[in-house]
Amino acid sequence: MVSEPQTPRRERERLRHRREILDAARRVLSARGVEAFTIEHVAKEAEFAIGSIYRHFASKEELIDMIAADLSEPLFAEAEALAASDLPFEQQLERLVRATLATLADDLPLIRAFGAGSGSERLAPIRARYFEAFDAIVKNGQREGVIPKGARAAKVVALMGLVAGFAKWRTFDALPKRFDAVPTIVGVWLGGVATATKRPRKGR
Amino acid sequence: MVSEPQTPRRERERLRHRREILDAARRVLSARGVEAFTIEHVAKEAEFAIGSIYRHFASKEELIDMIAADLSEPLFAEAEALAASDLPFEQQLERLVRATLATLADDLPLIRAFGAGSGSERLAPIRARYFEAFDAIVKNGQREGVIPKGARAAKVVALMGLVAGFAKWRTFDALPKRFDAVPTIVGVWLGGVATATKRPRKGR
Amino acid sequence: MVSEPQTPRRERERLRHRREILDAARRVLSARGVEAFTIEHVAKEAEFAIGSIYRHFASKEELIDMIAADLSEPLFAEAEALAASDLPFEQQLERLVRATLATLADDLPLIRAFGAGSGSERLAPIRARYFEAFDAIVKNGQREGVIPKGARAAKVVALMGLVAGFAKWRTFDALPKRFDAVPTIVGVWLGGVATATKRPRKGR
Amino acid sequence: MVSEPQTPRRERERLRHRREILDAARRVLSARGVEAFTIEHVAKEAEFAIGSIYRHFASKEELIDMIAADLSEPLFAEAEALAASDLPFEQQLERLVRATLATLADDLPLIRAFGAGSGSERLAPIRARYFEAFDAIVKNGQREGVIPKGARAAKVVALMGLVAGFAKWRTFDALPKRFDAVPTIVGVWLGGVATATKRPRKGR
DNA sequence: GATGAATGAGGTTTCATTCAT
DNA sequence: GATGAATGAAACCTCATTCAT
Question: Which of A3, A89, D34, D49 is the most buried (most CB within 10 A)?
Fold first, then answer.
């Protein structure tokens, strides 16, 4: 008996081409930077005609957003899996930090896509999901009693700030190339949030 | 007796014009964003002719870099003053963090100018100076014995990461608008760096 | 006994599809204007594939011409029926003017399709038929003796000019929306052609 | 003594270039039609760079509108002069009709620019001025008592319809090439408006 | 006959930079 | 030094048409 195809071939081809374009676009963005990210370059890299790019993405803006969405997907999937796992909180934390740093290191463009003022409304839900991934882990930490309750948003921002900060500054020259930032980030943050609420503050 | 001018009038005028252009350029960048940052807009805002802009800045790139340098100048001056002052370390720290956040909040474009991979070689010394400003303060902290010695670069990066992270994420929606980030940053970092080196770590 | 079909089913289907496309094309042209008149829009409106449009019409040009022909068809049919009828001339005239105005009002695009210099050679016979429809009526008027003989072409042009002029200018703001132009057109034209040949002209 | 220039040379040159572009644009529009009216063609015809066209006209749309405005200018000037002159009404009328026909014959594009649904808001005042030019003459005719009072808007539309109709249909094949339409238009209109209000109408 | 993804020439527009005055 | 019109490469995007399935 002949197998019933799940999706018709046309549709499958279409999706495959979309993926090829997305991958080519990512390569262009990674290799040549935002300035050189032109539809023509993407078309050449993907070996499609210019017009064909526009059949899949309504505008250059949308294409960039889709790259960001595409790049973050695995990270978010892992983050959600981690948050839902029954690993102890600290392992969740460490793995999430490591995964995030790895993603950011591999795909510098992502940082930029998330960069302040990218302004695209399309990315808002993506950013939200990113935030929530961290938030879920932190919540677990509070549930385990490892870190104090309260002010979770600030805690999450502090954590993401540390991660993003290390990711960004590593691209410059401040740190040794092979420096493993994860222990520092985790250590600073855990130490910090544990004591932050108790420390009496002096001065202005 | 007629005073001997330190700098001849010609030179003074030239500097004044340069400053006017720089200020106009900053206004344009702040008010209308990078996309609308064109030499023509700058010229109109500065009330100079297009060609005159090029008398003072060799290219648009250079102009942008000079804005970044210009914007950071007061912050760096204050940072160096703070580092050289005889204020207790924690006050130095808190004031520097506050000043940095204020600068970043006022001039979002600066963040972008510093944005990862802006690629301009011209900004490298500026970035270095920024780093050193933080470094000097941290060194004071170590000298006072408030924070442990060693791994100063990592400490500085952690601090700058926290600051930059809060600045960036505040532009999104994660935190309440009037949230004062300074105590959190200082608290997390101080708590973190104090314990980071001692904490035994578990898991992978 | 099974009826012998006049036209085989294939052919009937084909004609039905052609009509559906034509109607969809007219709707697109009417609703969204020439600028938005693209084959893709027509295909979507007709619920056919792009390629299918080309099965029925060799090019976009031809499709537009066919719309014009199609739109004028009922008007021409009525005009020829009127001319062949035994209604008194003035009723023929009035009804033709009214029908023409109604067609032009309903289908503004027609005006444009007929617009000076649309250039399509294919429309020449349509234009001719349009002219002849008016001509036949005018000839009846001459036969009845209501309007003087001679210079029939000029008379027809004058009449069509009046009709077209009112149709066009009504789309602007010169006349009240609900103004019934028919009496004015008929009156002016009848009065005019009746006296035109007799009036002594002064001045240059 | 050296003469004081009315306008500085820069300004004069600028205006001259604007005029050259406008003239070139008119030639392109006249010779090759709307379809081929591209900025590139205009630039080539005017012997300017593409970008230079945009220094003078913000968009292709604006350029087209300016052609229309430019083309109508002399006609309107003459119309207003005629209306203000103390020529007898019928001479005003005949001359205006003749001038209008001449303009429309010379510059077919004008017809199109005025064509129904050109839609450009920029042209609204131009159209209004066109209408008012006719209106002023008709008003004079009423003042002289040559044509009856009342319904002036309809009279003006009738007149403009006749003129436009003859102009348009002459471009087709209905009339002999050298046919002088002016007497017919003036005759039909004068005869028509004189009797239009008095004629009893029959039929529906 | 029907389909619709792919094509790519061609259009509009922007803008950093030059240069004659 | 100041001016600002001119330049034209290069970007984005559209859409009539083709053609393999």
Answer: A89
